[in-house]
């Protein structure tokens, strides 16, 4: 600015309220801090520059010194060691001292010298020379430190050189040393020679190599080897690399070893066992690892660092080859070999179980090859991730085979638990440890891997079902359940000891019940006796009720969020509860199915007394209650009558809701008597789901084209339903067939009879649904296996008797055939014979050329059963079910088993409850309960056979009391009335009544 002429300084005001002195003080402090930071930065720069210069000068001087020594070495011994002999290895010679000083693995010239050194050493050994004398002369004891130093360095640079040249020498790495004089083989054979266990320096040299992270070098070398690199020509020979690994890995600290403890991060277990497909690359090393006690040491080493495995195991391959998954795959693959050894330690089996349980828990859920997580959709784990390499998944899945499971179960239960039920006391601590270990392993396995094959292996190759049952039974009898807190974390209130063993026992036994036959179950009583089955039902029922009804009320929100001290995600108390809940409900439902076929216990044993009250029924109808959860998951705990009340209430609520929405919509159809099915199909198939639920009125047209008399107040529609179901499900029509017991199931050849057969099946499904929806009973006795399909259940071998008992007997005779099955000339094909047309179908790809043998006969039997029960009628059943579910949701029908479902369709086969009917009958037209004719009527009705009583009246499933007030006892007349003329005597009433019910007339009877 320009000078204003005023020499005085103008006063400045700080609007922030600070004085100029305070402002100047802040500026000064900031300047001081900045100066201090600048000086510190400058000192750091100077210090860093000094260190860099010092390091550079050291490296430069070292390289200069190495170059000078290299020059002296070449002038003394020759560039290619021309002037070197065996004496040059001696302690007084400068040969090794100079060479070990200047050697650089990155220089090809130095590597060439190293190869000459190794060849010279190996030549000396092949001529019977003493390696100890070669390096130490006659006075080894006085020169020991110097000699050992040189041997250590020589062995290390040999391995470092192989690591440096691993990509160039890849084809040589797995060749046996004697096959060709390749440099890689010479170097590795030299290392093997230097660490021979017979040499005095062995322990110190191996310890030195381990401190120098030798396993990290071997890791890099092995990873560079392709999985299929081993030449078939040398497949039976051990490579030099494997020989060296065997020698170093076998040095496991036995007395009098002085090796230091190796950091777990650089140990054999973490560096080598985490290599993907290790045994595929080093197949001979696998045998040594499994057989020579190495597995016991190294698997125990893994078990010790498991809690911190995330910090110990390397993950340098790729994200889909995590270290823990590779360790798991390699341990599992070796485990079968390890446990096959006759004298393996039981502690090794326990360590294998512990390692595999922990690593499986960390593994993402592996789906099956078909894309399904498993045959059970209710997996308790919701972190289904597929982040692993596909081949790694296959390795893990294939390793847990029936042989491994058999070895593990036998090893853990050997001498600790038995299938003998005579033990009077509870299990010992050793038994508890064994059961806890195997159950924790299997629980995690079921929640990680596709369980179907694993379950089959456990069922066929092990005695785990009777062993676990013995354990559960003894604990229950002695009222002494262990907590298994080592394996499952749980708050004290939730610590029910039966949770873990039950969560494993139930799915295995459930799977076994799918594959055994009736003879094994009822006659041979395998795997459990019928007496034990009765006890089993009672124990499991009590456990399931406690899990569904009692425990939820005890668990507080605060307890549910407690940490899991065991560290297992899949073994948390909530996941074990879910597994037990699903397993218990499915196993009990399956046992009830077996009991329905041929009772081994009272049907009441499946019911819980607490589920019989009216309060339980009312709670179940509310939804989102414990009672509704029980009806959804374990309906068999409630008696049939309670479930019928719930079902009829659901139907009534649905009908009321539909009526309120479609009060003005009423569909009226004209149906010709002589074209009943076709007219109904053409007209009713056009209705939507809501229209099907609404009122439908029918007018019949007789053969003369005249509408029949009558007002449809519900009776005509019932008559229509009875007639159309009788016509449509008649085997003569071609859509359904009959079993030998005259039970209905879809005709596999329906497509040959009707072009629109699948649309007809959809229509018939909706017809059956409408009948149940309206409470109309129809005479349709379905085969049990087909009713299972309407409940979304899959059919297995033991369902085959309900379709073809003769085929079932033939398959069982094949299963128990003592001779050579291959001589029967059976192949994996099946012949279909529909309406005289024969066609051959393969049960497996290439089945025409696949002979049935003793090894695959079980597979053949189940494939035949699957073809007949499931494959042949899959399309028909699917369309029928879609139509049925338009009116009846699946959760409503799942409340009932197949026998009860048939009762819903056709009513009970038992006689009418005349007393029930009489107490719920209203009278008019001059009649009253004490009228003489009424007494005669009830007497006559009671004297009728069950067949005639059913013709007179099809009583609703809940009985008469549950009927609506306007749904009076009916003989299918329009207004639901029974018109009883004033007959004069009992004989006349009986004859007239029998004539009426057997005339099977429509609305023209008078």
UniProtKB/TrEMBL annotation:
A GO BP entry: ubiquitin-dependent protein catabolic process
Molecular function terms, GO-annotated: ubiquitin protein ligase activity
Main enzyme class: transferase
Family per similarity comment: Belongs to the UPL family.
Compositional bias (Basic and acidic residues): 8-24
Pfam family, one: HECT
Enzymatic reactions: S-ubiquitinyl-[E2 ubiquitin-conjugating enzyme]-L-cysteine + [acceptor protein]-L-lysine = [E2 ubiquitin-conjugating enzyme]-L-cysteine + N(6)-ubiquitinyl-[acceptor protein]-L-lysine
E.C. no: 2.3.2.26
Protein's recorded name: HECT-type E3 ubiquitin transferase
Region Disordered, residue ranges: 1-24
SMART domains documented for this protein: HECTc
Keywords, sorted A to Z: Transferase, Ubl conjugation pathway
UniProt domain HECT: residue ranges: 688-1006
InterPro entries: E3A/B/C-like, HECT_dom, Hect_E3_ubiquitin_ligase
Organism for this UniProt entry: Oryza glumipatula
CDD domains xref list: HECTc (cd00078)
Superkingdom of the organism of origin: Eukaryota
Function as written in the Swiss-Prot or TrEMBL entry: Probable E3 ubiquitin-protein ligase which mediates ubiquitination and subsequent proteasomal degradation of target proteins.
Active site: 974
């Amino acid at each position: 600015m320009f000078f204003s002429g005023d020499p005085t300084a103008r006063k400045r005001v700080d609007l922030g309220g600070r004085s100029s002195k305070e402002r100047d003080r802040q500026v000064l402090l900031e300047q001081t801090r900045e100066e201090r930071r600048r000086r510190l930065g400058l000192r750091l720069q100077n210090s860093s520059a000094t260190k860099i210069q010092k390091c550079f000068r050291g490296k430069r001087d070292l390289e200069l010194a190495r170059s000078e020594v290299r020059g002296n070495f070449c002038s003394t011994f020759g560039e290619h060691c021309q002037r070197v002999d065996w004496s040059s290895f001696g302690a007084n010679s400068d040969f090794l001292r100079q060479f070990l000083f200047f050697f650089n693995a990155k220089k090809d010239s130095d590597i060439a010298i190293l190869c000459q050194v190794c060849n010279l050493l190996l030549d000396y050994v092949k001529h019977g020379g003493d390696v100890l004398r070669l390096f130490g002369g006659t006075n080894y004891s006085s020169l020991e430190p110097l000699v050992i130093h040189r041997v250590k360095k020589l062995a290390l640079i040999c391995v470092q050189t192989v690591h440096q040249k691993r990509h160039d020498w890849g084809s040589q790495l797995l060749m046996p040393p004697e096959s060709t004089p390749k440099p890689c083989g010479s170097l590795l054979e030299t290392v093997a020679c230097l660490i021979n266990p017979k040499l005095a320096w062995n322990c110190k040299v191996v310890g030195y190599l381990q401190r120098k992270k030798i396993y990290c070098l071997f890791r890099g070398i092995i990873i560079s080897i392709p999985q299929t690199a081993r030449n078939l020509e040398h497949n039976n020979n051990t490579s030099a690399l494997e020989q060296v690994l065997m020698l170093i890995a076998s040095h496991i600290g036995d007395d009098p070893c002085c090796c230091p403890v190796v950091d777990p991060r650089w140990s054999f277990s973490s560096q080598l066992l985490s290599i993907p497909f290790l045994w595929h690359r080093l197949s001979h090393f696998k045998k040594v690892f499994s057989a020579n006690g190495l597995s016991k040491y190294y698997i125990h080493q893994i078990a010790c660092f498991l809690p911190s495995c995330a910090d110990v195991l390397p993950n340098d391959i790729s994200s889909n080859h995590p270290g823990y998954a590779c360790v798991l795959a390699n341990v599992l693959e070796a485990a079968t070999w390890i446990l096959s050894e006759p004298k393996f330690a039981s502690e090794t089996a326990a360590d294998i179980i512990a390692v595999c349980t922990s690593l499986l828990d960390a593994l993402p859920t592996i789906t099956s090859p078909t894309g399904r997580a498993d045959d059970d959709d209710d997996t308790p784990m919701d972190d289904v991730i597929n982040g692993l390499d596909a081949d790694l998944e296959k390795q893990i899945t294939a390793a847990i085979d029936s042989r491994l499971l058999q070895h593990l179960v036998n090893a853990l239960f050997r001498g600790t638990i038995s299938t003998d039920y005579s033990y009077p006391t509870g299990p010992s601590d050793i038994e508890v440890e064994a059961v806890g270990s195997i159950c924790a392993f299997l629980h995690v396995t079921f929640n990680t891997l596709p369980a179907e094959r694993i379950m089959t292996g456990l069922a066929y190759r092990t005695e785990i079902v009777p062993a676990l049952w013995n354990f559960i039974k003894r604990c229950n009898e002695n009222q002494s359940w262990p907590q298994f807190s080592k394996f499952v974390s749980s708050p004290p209130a939730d610590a029910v000891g039966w949770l873990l063993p039950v969560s494993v026992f139930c799915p295995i036994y459930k799977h076994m019940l799918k594959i055994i036959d009736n003879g094994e179950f009822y006659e041979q009583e395998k795997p459990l006796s019928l007496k034990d089955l009765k006890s089993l039902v009672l124990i499991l029922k009590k456990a399931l009720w406690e899990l569904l009804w009692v425990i939820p009320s005890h668990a507080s929100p605060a307890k549910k969020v407690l940490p899991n001290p065991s560290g297992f995600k899949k073994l948390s108390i909530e996941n074990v509860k879910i597994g037990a809940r699903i397993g218990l409900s499915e196993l009990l439902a399956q046992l009830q199915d077996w009991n329905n076929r041929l009772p081994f216990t009272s049907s009441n044993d499946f019911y819980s007394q607490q589920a019989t009250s009216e309060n339980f029924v009312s709670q179940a109808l509310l939804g989102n209650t414990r009672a509704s959860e029980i009806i959804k998951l374990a309906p068999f705990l409630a008696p049939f009558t309670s479930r019928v009340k719930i079902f009829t209430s659901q139907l009534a609520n649905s009908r009321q809701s539909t009526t309120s929405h479609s009060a003005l919509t009423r569909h009226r159809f004209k149906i010709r008597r002589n074209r009943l099915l076709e007219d109904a199909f053409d007209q009713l198939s056009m209705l939507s789901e809501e229209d099907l639920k609404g009122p439908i009125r029918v007018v019949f047209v007789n053969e003369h084209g005249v509408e029949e008399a009558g007002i449809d107040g519900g009776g005509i529609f019932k008559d229509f339903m009875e007639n159309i179901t009788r016509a449509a499900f008649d085997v003569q029509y071609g859509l359904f067939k009959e079993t030998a017991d005259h039970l209905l199931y879809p005709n596999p050849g329906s497509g040959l009879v009707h072009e629109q057969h699948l649309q007809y099946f959809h229509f018939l499904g909706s017809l059956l649904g409408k009948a149940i929806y309206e409470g109309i009973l129809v005479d349709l006795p379905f085969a049990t296996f087909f009713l299972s399909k309407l409940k979304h259940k899959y059919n297995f071998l033991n369902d085959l008797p309900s379709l073809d008992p003769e085929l079932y007997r033939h398959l069982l005779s094949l299963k128990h055939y003592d001779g050579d099955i291959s001589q029967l000339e059976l192949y994996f094909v099946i012949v279909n014979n529909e309406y005289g047309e024969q066609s051959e179908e393969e049960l497996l790809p290439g089945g025409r050329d696949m002979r049935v043998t003793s090894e695959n006969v079980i597979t053949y039997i189940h494939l035949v059963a699957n073809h007949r029960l499931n494959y042949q009628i899959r399309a028909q059943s699917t369309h029928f079910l879609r139509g049925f579910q338009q009116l009846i949701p699946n959760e409503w029908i799942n409340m009932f088993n197949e026998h009860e479902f048939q009762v819903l369709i056709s009513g009970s086969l038992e006689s009418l409850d005349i007393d029930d009917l009489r107490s719920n009958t209203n009278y008019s037209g001059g009649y009253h309960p004490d009228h003489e004719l009424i007494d005669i009527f009830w007497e006559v009705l009671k004297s009728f056979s069950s067949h005639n009583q059913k013709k007179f009246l099809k009583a609703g499933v809940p009985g008469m009391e549950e009927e609506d007030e306007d749904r009076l006892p009916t003989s299918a007349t329009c207004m639901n009335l029974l018109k009883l003329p004033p007959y004069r005597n009992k004989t006349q009433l009986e004859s007239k009544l029998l004539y009426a019910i057997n005339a099977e007339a429509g609305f023209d009877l008078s």
